[in-house]
Amino acid sequence: MNQNSLPDQKRINDGFFSHVKTDLPAGLVVFLIALPLCLGISLASGAPLFSGIIAGIVGGIVVGFLSGSKVNVSGPAASVALVVLMAIQSLGSFQAVLAATMVAGVLQIILGFLRAGTIAYFFPSSMIKGILASIGLILIINQIPHAFGYAGKELFGSMEDGFSTNLFAGVLDQISLGATIITVLSLIIIFAWDQPALKRYTFFKFVPSALIAVVVSVLVNQLFVAYFPQLALSGNRLVQLPAADGIGEFFSFFTFPDFSQLTNPELYTVALSIAFIASLESLLSTEAGDKLDPYKRKSSTNRELKAQGIGNLVSGFIGGLPVTAVIVRTSANVSSGGRTPLSTITHGTVMLICVMAIPRILNMIPLASLSAVLFVVGYKLTSIALFRRMWKAGKRQFVPFFVTIVAVMLTDLITGIMIGGAVSVFMILRDNYRTPFFIDKKAHYEGERVELVLSEEVTFLNKASVMLTLDHVAPNSTVVIDASRSVNIDDDVLEIIEEFKATAAYKNIKIEQIGLDKFFAQRKPA
User: Fold this and answer.
1) 12-21, 158-167, 400-409: which has the minimum mean pLDDT?
2) Where do transmembrane segments lie in this chain (predicted)?
3) Is the pLDDT of residue 440 over 60?
4) Are 310 and 320 a contacting pair, CB within 8 Å?
5) What pLDDT score was predicted for residue 437?
6) What is the dihedral sign for C-alpha 292, 72, 464, 439?
7) What pLDDT score was predicted for residue 190?
8) Beta carbons of 71 and 289 less than 8 angstroms apart
């Protein structure tokens, strides 16, 4: 292959200011998407709303500088909101959660130095989807009070031990019609704005639906204030960020950890939960970000763990929620033209400037509109289409997926993950005990012929091994992937092979495959 005919993969300039013209606008777009999500995730976490803004700033500036990924965008994530919500209840204060966040950051840094960056590949996709689906369901459930302006103390009771029996008790007389109108209107705007027919136009493509819903909700509430005061929302039904009269007062708003809780064993359970979920999402987002990157650059997952760990140390120390790499913001970054870390640093910097300069405008945002945004986020994690796909994928995929959801909903996150993982391993071992996996892992040199002979059963347990072996194939080699003996190849492994086939041209690698076509033909849609 003529190397000069390849895309700019071989010649790209990764310098910090090499793509200023596209990175700065992309950073602004990501900020517009991230701002309502930072506020909404704080709301879902039961934490001060300012903590989500802090996490967005730290994720943009601190992690942006340290991460090896060129396109990742970090900040607070819905996946960690449930952990924080439960942790505030179990530890008794948000300051104790901040200490746990810092401990989680230390754990992530240690994992990075232990080169544990491939850990995410050892978790089956069915279990991961189950974790995210359960978080989506709980996210939706916990936003119902804010969506309807419910003024009671608790609509669902404590989520610490799973579901409460205190559902909808005395709710009707506590509902706000104004909040309900804003929630419904926000949902209509978000779904209408995201229709493919409108996304053909540049304005609808780059202006996020969540931002439009929030802006319209502010205008509608101001209309209520002027003409329909009985519908107007105020007080704790609006965002309540501290407004500073100067730089000194602004920095006084930061909350610091309660280090006295470091002697509490429960804190370390919370820290492990945060470290696990934040690391898992960050690694999966890094993998997805590398696939989205038009230059197909590979990020160091170990460096990403260290960067996220330092981010959580900083965020926890100054009062922020835990940070992770977030695929929604990363995807928006790439599609908007982000090509270097300058775009994610720009989004964090703009967020810092806004929270310092215009907090009173942000305080006009109704919580009902943020709930509508979170309804959509939760539904994307746990959509009906996802359940259908998992059902069609067969019991090996559906059973661990469904068990993980039920276990998380009825117990807590870590217990649910352990139960789901145990079921996943049982399902695999049941099919795998007679057919051990074999793969050639010898070192290869440029120009050699590499043969990978797959066994009868190739499962997600082999995902990391297959990926690492293919990643280390030298340029100008010929790779033979022999699946003639295989009876079943897991979708996770097929995805790895498919991705390798799509990017092999960049290293001038020729691929020969034996018996693989039938598995790709039978593959269920992801």
Assistant:
1) 158-167
2) 24-43, 49-66, 97-123, 130-151, 171-194, 206-228, 267-289, 310-330, 350-377, 398-429
3) no
4) no
5) 43
6) positive
7) 92
8) yes
User: What would the pLDDT profile of 448-479 be if each residue is shown by its tens digit?
Assistant: 778 888 877 787 777 777 887 888 888 888 88
Type of residue at 211: L
Question: CB of 152 within 8 A of CB of 373?
Answer: no
Q: Where are the domains of the chain?
A: 3-150+173-375, 383-432, 449-522
Q: Which of 50, 53, 69, 14 is nearest to 349 (CA)?
A: 53
Single-letter amino acid code for the residue at 517: D
Q: Are 382 and 132 in contact (CB under 8 A)?
A: yes
Residues 111-163 have pLDDT tens digits of 999 999 887 777 788 888 888 888 888 888 888 888 988 755 444 443 334 44
- DSSP 8-state class, residue 120: G
Q: Which two tokens stand for residue 510?
A: 């020729």
Pairing of strands 510-514, 449-453: unpaired
Burial class from Cβ neighbours inside 10 Å (0-12, 13-18, 19+) for residue 21 reads exposed
Residue whose tokens read 């919500």: 85
The rounded distance, in Å, linking the Cα atoms of 381 and 379 is 5
Q: What is the pLDDT at residue 159? A: 38
Q: Are 255 and 95 contacting, i.e. CB atoms less than 8 angstroms apart?
A: yes
What Å distances lie between residue 19 and 15, 73, 292, 294, 328, CA to CA?
A: 8, 16, 17, 13, 21
Please state the pTM of the whole predicted model: 0.74
300: phi then psi, degrees, rounded to nearest 5: -80, 115
Percent of residues, the chain, with pLDDT higher than 70: 88
| Contact between 207 and 177 (Cβ < 8 Å) | no
* pLDDT confidence of residue 13: 58
449-522 carries CATH number 3.30.750.24: yes
**Residues 463/489, Cβ–Cβ less than 8 Å:** no
DSSP 319-331: TPPP-EE-HHHHH
Supply the pLDDT for residue 71.
92
Here the tokens at position 234 are 């105020």
CA distance 526 to 524: 6
Question: Which pLDDT does position 15 carry in this prediction?
Answer: 67
The radius of gyration of the chain from alpha carbons, rounded to an integer in Å, stands at 24
**From residue 224, how far is each of 135, 175, 177, 188, 234 by CA, in Å?**
34, 16, 11, 19, 11
